[in-house]
Design goal:
With 100 residues, the chain is an alpha+beta fold. The chain has six helices and three strands, in the order ααααββααβ.
């Protein structure tokens, strides 16, 4: 009888959310969103104004920039940008940054 009570007992919402997010497919999606959101957090709102799309796939961050001049300027700093993003995330998730 005690086992049934423990199985269906109440849990804090924080614990339930951790269990849900810990599921493999959901964890990957949450990580993708976190990585894409880090672009704005690291690069700032000014660069985000010229950013059309940010997506992450196979450890590569793809960023679409609508300004050719800004794209050229950022292309010289890709390695530094990658390091700043990985430092912000606290782990090495991004292997390469590609500007479109």
């Amino acid at each position: 009888m005690k086992n049934a009570k423990n199985k269906f007992g109440t849990k804090p919402l924080k614990e339930v959310l951790k269990e849900v997010v810990a599921q493999k497919p959901l964890q990957k999606g949450v990580q993708n969103v976190r990585i894409c959101n880090s672009w704005e957090e690291v690069m700032g709102t000014h660069i985000m104004q010229y950013t059309l799309q940010v997506r992450f796939s196979h450890n590569i961050l793809y960023v679409s920039i609508r300004s050719a001049a800004l794209k050229m300027e950022l292309s010289y700093q890709l390695e530094m940008i990658k390091e700043r993003l990985n430092n912000h995330l606290g782990e090495t998730c991004i292997r390469k940054v590609v500007l479109n």
